[in-house]
Known about the structure:
The chain is 36% helix and 21% strand. By secondary structure, the chain is an alpha/beta fold. Helix 6 runs parallel beside helix 7.
Amino acid sequence: MRQLPSIELSIEALRIDFMSNLITRTTELAMSVTLTYIRPGDTVVDATCGTGQDTVALARAVGDEGTVYAFDIQKTAISLTEARLQSHGITNVRLKAQSFVTMDKYVPENNAAAVVFNLGYLPGGDHSITTTADTTLKGLECALRIIRPGGIVTVVMYDGHEKGAEEKKAILEWAEKLDQSRYHVAYVSLLNQKNDPPEIVWITKK
Ligand SMILES: C[S@@+](CC[C@H](N)C(=O)[O-])C[C@H]1O[C@@H](n2cnc3c(N)ncnc32)[C@H](O)[C@@H]1O
């Protein structure tokens, strides 16, 4: 895989052109900001690989010299991601059929450029298998340990289902209490949209 400057990588990975309306496409907005924190050769984590879309974008951003650790608790998600990676000829991803709470076993403290959580259930999969407030908060604590200073944790939250609403509340309560001398936290919500669009929390470590 040829390594490209990061701006070209972001565009290639997301297939966005400069005319696209990013604030209407929350997951792409989340990823486009995340990619600006990543350089070729970095280590990053996809905490919930699902269908592998985010994993591909991250793998392209870190390039052949970098590594993506991608987690999911569902074998179906791991297989979908594996197939997507193969179809793109991507070989720099270590897939783990495990909960994201194990990420700090693989990535040392202060090491990752980015950790991405795209919460909820597998699109097209079993909606009862979803991320939960308790586990997600544990995963977020792991993520804060492993990101390097200047690194980013990206969280895409969906509150249109019961577990998602509880999870979002817990994340926001946790995030607003993070020590401001160590972290910056940003929160994006599409205020006038009625159909529960995803929301984003970004956390960066000083
Ligand atoms: C919205 S999907 C992720 C979408 C994915 N990023 C993509 O690009 O397709 C959420 C995923 O989180 C997974 N998940 C739920 N709990 C998890 C946990 N504790 N650790 C890792 N993955 C988990 C689900 O199995 C599901 O595949």
